[in-house]
Each structure stands twice: as C-alpha cells, then as structure tokens.
Batch of 2 targets.
Target 1
Amino acid sequence: MTTTASAPTPSGTTRCEEIYTSPSPSFWGTGPTSLVRDLCAERPVDGLKALDAGCGEGRNARHLARHGARVHAMDVSEAALARAASLCGHVPHVTWERADITTRPLTDDWYDLVVAYSLTHWLDGPAAVAALTGRLRAATAPGGLHLYCAFNARVPYPHTGTQQPTLLGHQEHLDLYAGWEIVRATDTDLHDEHPGEGPHIHSMTRIVARRPR
Ligand SMILES: C[S@@+](CC[C@H](N)C(=O)[O-])C[C@H]1O[C@@H](n2cnc3c(N)ncnc32)[C@H](O)[C@@H]1O
C-alpha cells in the first residue's frame, strides 16, 4: 500500500478518530456498501477513474478496485488508512492518500465516479457540505456518476457526545445535485450496529446522480 501526502486533521473527524483506535479490526464492516455493490453488479467499472472521498477502512475502494476501477482513496485520518492497509493488503489500482478532502486541490472534470459515503454529515455545517459537494461535482467528468450517502434529519442522531453530525433534510441533500440527473434517490432507515455500540437507527439519504454531458 502506498500512502501519500499529509494533512491537518480538521474538526469534524474526532468521532471517527476515536472509532479507529477501538480494538476491533473493522468498525464499518468489510463488504462494500449497497450503492457500490449494486453499481458493480449492474455495469462494468473497469478502467473508470474513481475517487473514494473519506474512504475510511477502504471497503468501497477495495471492491471497486477488484472490479477494475482505478481508485484514488482519500481520508484525513491516518488511523483509518492504517486500518485500510491491514484490511486490504495490496490491492492493485488503489492509490491511498491522507488528505483533507475539503481543501485538497482536485482536477476539474477528472473522475468518472465519485463515492462520498457517510462523509458529508461529518463536516461542520450545511455550508461546508455544499462547498465540498460543489468541489466533488466540479471534479467529475461530464457523464460521470456520484454515489452519495449521508444521514438525514428525519431521525434524530441516536448517539450522545460532543461530536454531533450535520443533519440535512433529504430534499436538502437532493438540492446539492440541482442540474444533475438523479438516477436513484432513497430516504430509508438504516438499522445499524457497530462494535461497542448497541443497535440503532439512522435515516439515510442515498443518491446516485449523473453529471450532464
Ligand atoms: C463514517 S466514515 C465512512 C468511511 C467509508 N466511506 C465507509 O463508508 O466505510 C467517514 C470517514 O470520512 C473521513 N473524513 C471526515 N472528514 C474528512 C475530510 N475532511 N477529508 C477526508 N476524510 C474525511 C473520516 O476520517 C472517516 O474515515
């Protein structure tokens, strides 16, 4: 595994950092998330230039790369990337990078596929979410796809503590993709459980959106 660059840890990542110091080898699970799994089942992704923004332990990057995508997997957390290294081993076609996606320069019109899974609700407020999704949209090639997933405001965040997510409404998430084709969008309950946490529910917005050509 090659890891490049370094970045300051922005606010908004504290809870994830704590998670990555827990003894369990994987907090988020090792299989791909539903949008990534379904995409790879429905169409070829080999050769696509993909960005996994906030890749965490690498479950989506690994799956895409195994299906032939050229993946740029980025996370601000060194601990997350260390987890990814031990869980993924050497996966060809993945470049892992430690970087703050909110500030790292991105090339316009570059990626065929952008995955932002459970990333944006950890940003500091709606303006930061809009700014980042705008940057990710600009970095997407015409005709390129976004797989976007975030908590929404329909169900209150079930955990207490200082680190609370930014919860947009489902429609506010959709509005981030104004002018794009919405291929699929859902607002559903996720019944979740992680090591050290009891069962809980998040309301999740999932969007598959395509940039117009
Ligand atoms: C909830 S985890 C999800 C990880 C992965 N996308 C997945 O679904 O398994 C969110 C990840 O986003 C990362 N993250 C949060 N803010 C970030 C930022 N500004 N730049 C890059 N990564 C960030 C965190 O370190 C964490 O690994």
Target 2
Amino acid sequence: MTLERHRPVMAKETLDALRLPEGGVAVDATVGHGGHALAMLQALGENGTLVAMDWDETMLENAKQALANAPGRVHFVHADYRRLPEELDALKIDRVDGILYDLGVNREHFEDPLRGFSFLRSGPLDMRMDRSAKETAAAWLGRATYGEIARALREFGGERHAAEIAKRIVERKKAGTLRTTDDLVEAVLEAVPPHRREKRIHPATRTFQAIRIAVNQELEDLDYHIERAAERLAPGGRMVTLSYHSGEDRAAKNAFRNLSRSGFKVITKKPIAPSTDEVASNPSARSAKLRCIERNEEH
Ligand SMILES: C[S@@+](CC[C@H](N)C(=O)[O-])C[C@H]1O[C@@H](n2cnc3c(N)ncnc32)[C@H](O)[C@@H]1O
C-alpha cells in the first residue's frame, strides 16, 4: 500500500476551506486511510484534537496506523457518521471547529474481491461497508421487489435501462443464478444489448453503484444528518463535504441551503472541482465536488 494509491482527494483545497485553528477540535467523519485526517492533525498541531470516525473497522485500523505519529490527540470512533452528535456527546465534546465528510467508498473497498463491490472482481454479493451490518447485497436483492430494484437502479445509479436490468435480476433470482458479482454483471449484459450500452463506462457501473448505495443506505436522510452535525460547529467553524455522485452532492447542497437560512454562510457558491493535474494523476478524483459552509460568528 503506497501513499500514492490512497492520496486524499483535493487535500489542499479541503484544508484551505476548513481553515482549522491551531489547538482546535475537528471531526473527520469518514477517516478511511487517514490521508485527510493526517493533514487536519498537522493543521491543528500538538494541542489539537481530532475525532476520526468510520463505520468500516478495517478502515479504522488503517487510519490508526497512518496516524500513529501524527501530532495532537485522536479519538477513533467506529460508528455511522449519522451518529456524529451522539458520539461527540459520548466524548464530552460540545463544539468543534471543523467537520469533514469525504463521502462514499474507499478505493480499497473495490480492490478486495471478497467485499463484492467491484464488477471487475469475482466475489460474493456482499457490498456492506460496515460488516457488522446484517444485510448484504445478496440479501437485499433477495428481498427487494422488481419495483424496488428498478427504482434503486434509476435513482441511485441514473441507469437508463433500469427496467430491463431489474427484470433480468428478478429472473435470475428465481432461477437461483444470482449469487456472485459475475452473475450480476451477466444479468446486466443479458439485459442491455451491446448497441444500447454506454460507451464511456463499463455497462455494470451504474448497477453496482446503485445496489451499493441501497445496501448501505448511503443517502438515507443524509441531508438531515449533515444539518444536524453542522449544529455542533463553533461560531466561525466550517464544514466541508466531498461528494462523488449526484445523489451525495444534492444532499450536501440541500443541507447547506437550509443551513444558510439559519445562521450559516455558504462559502462555495458553486462546488469546487479537482484540478486537471489531480484528475490526470488520480482519475478516481474526477467526479469530486467540494462544498463548504461556515457558522456565523453571532451564533
Ligand atoms: C472516500 S473514503 C474516505 C477517505 C479518507 N478521506 C482518506 O483520506 O483516506 C470514505 C470512507 O467513509 C466511510 N463511510 C462511508 N459511509 C459512512 C458512514 N455512513 N459512516 C461512517 N463512515 C462511512 C467508508 O467506510 C470509507 O472509509
């Protein structure tokens, strides 16, 4: 594992936007490999405190290693970021100076075939980010109706062929031939003939993204939870979101719009995109959008 492989997306832009004060307290709600967290701790300095959250224990272990020699104090928290206020209460932390959400999955999730996230790797249909959660992709697909599958493909994947793919998935379910990531890829290929496939991306990209979002309930009340977390910012404190698809970005945008009516100022009128240099050296950053909001001083 090289640092290059896990380079944090838009690291400089993120740190510039957060403007963390020396000796302050901040939350990295999605610590992952700890790339952003390390930069945050360096900005906070020896007297700083970082709450580092992730619901994937493997990621939390990676972050612990990455941050072993970082300055300041780190509280590692294995939890869904939707519990951010409760976790701060448990740590007896009232206000924080900065909060970062680097949303979505980690590259490592795609690289481990056993986790079932990738259409390029044969594996079980798992796709859970939090492996203490009960429902795998196989279980979700097992209980979801045709309508639910089609809706997920459309809403979470933007899949134009949602109806045909959902139909084929249901047929395979009935025949007992929907067990692995390869089976799911086959279902997509059977449903969408070559001349109707998108050229730019693998035909199963949208299906895998949609099912992953459904299994992990990634967009469930995300805007509400972002707003709730922002209430824990100290006056002048900032929150940054990095999103990678339209559903995530919409949630951040809606949350920030609501917050701007009650004591917060949107810093990024338009989301910031990564530089062409960054996209060239790290293609997985290409869809990233950075948004930032600040709590007004008088609140
Ligand atoms: C894009 S990665 C973060 C990468 C990180 N910024 C770094 O520098 O390495 C997103 C992380 O968020 C975690 N995650 C996603 N949804 C979460 C949730 N609801 N609660 C807690 N962690 C979550 C994932 O497990 C993953 O490790």
